[in-house]
């Protein structure tokens, strides 16, 4: 029983991760705000843990965007993530800057 539940949870997590990667791969050079990713994937409640996991694995990179609504964290596929999803590398614009605007 417990092994079946564990397999189901792992499978569910993998499907969610694949859905998020598919949305990111559709625009690999564009940083997409987390709320946009959540709406596009339908994963409003779990997008942050998925992005954190992908970030730890080196598959996504992030930066803070200045928007009229205030600073927003945005993600895109990293070069490694592009290779893993068979998408071309992101354009060679400046590297991600994880520091929040105005910090430091």
Sum this structure up briefly.
By secondary structure, this protein is α+β, with helices and mostly antiparallel strands.
Key traits:
single chain; 104 residues; alpha+beta; Arc Repressor Mutant, subunit A; three-stranded antiparallel beta sheet; 17% strand
Walk me through the structure:
The chain is an alpha+beta fold. It has a single domain (2-84), classed as Arc Repressor Mutant, subunit A (Orthogonal Bundle), CATH 1.10.10.10. It has four helices and three strands. It has helices spanning 2-26, 34-41, 47-56, 79-84; strands at residues 32-33, 60-67, 70-77. It has a three-stranded antiparallel sheet with strand order 1-3-2. α1 crosses α2 and α1 (2-26) packs across α3 (47-56). The N and C termini lie far apart (51 Å). 17% of the residues are buried.
């Amino acid at each position: 029983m417990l092994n079946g539940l564990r397999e189901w949870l792992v499978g569910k997590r993998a499907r969610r991760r694949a859905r998020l990667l598919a949305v990111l791969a559709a625009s690999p050079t564009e940083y997409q705000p987390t709320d946009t990713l959540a709406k596009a994937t339908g994963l409003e409640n779990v997008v942050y843990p998925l992005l954190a996991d992908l970030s730890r694995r080196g598959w996504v990179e992030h930066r803070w965007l200045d928007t009229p609504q205030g600073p927003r964290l945005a993600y895109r596929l990293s070069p490694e993530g592009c290779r893993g999803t068979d998408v071309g590398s992101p354009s060679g614009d400046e590297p991600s800057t994880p520091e929040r605007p105005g910090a430091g």
